[in-house]
Predict the structure of Lipid droplet-associated protein.
Amino acid sequence: MKCLPLPVRVAAGLAVTAVDEARRLPQQLAGLPVTLVSQALQLSMRVQQTVTELAIKGDDLLAGLRPAPETPEWATFDEDLPEPGAGGPDVADPWAQEERALAEEHVEGEFDSGAEGTDGEGPDALPEYGELSLPQLRGRLRRLSAVQLEELLAYEREHAARPEFLGMLERRLLTVRNQQR
């Protein structure tokens, strides 16, 4: 058989390839959305990586131009804080009072679970109040009304007046009152 010219053979090869691709088209169309989404995500990740690399290089350059402060603004040390009872700016802040009281208890190595000066009986709202630790009390506060919380607060002020208990009771009472509005 005589060999056909190259352009005819190439045209026949293209026709066969077109028929094969047409047969596979339904399968390729089903996977097309997944392929497109995958390629879009890859491109997005490459862009994010490039931007991050540029930011890191920029940070390195700018850090060399601007020296770091000896002590960062956010760093605080124990000696920088006012002494408890020294009349610092957070004297009226119940959160700060509670934090200070808890820190003092841990420093002393004592963790008193009951109120000092109680006779084992608490207010009507929570009779076992005198034997509760701070976490135990915290777990029971959600079921108490504003009136009951006021009763506990008055009881604590009259008996032990522990700042951490007072702070927690005051905050819970404020939250309950705000929810009732």
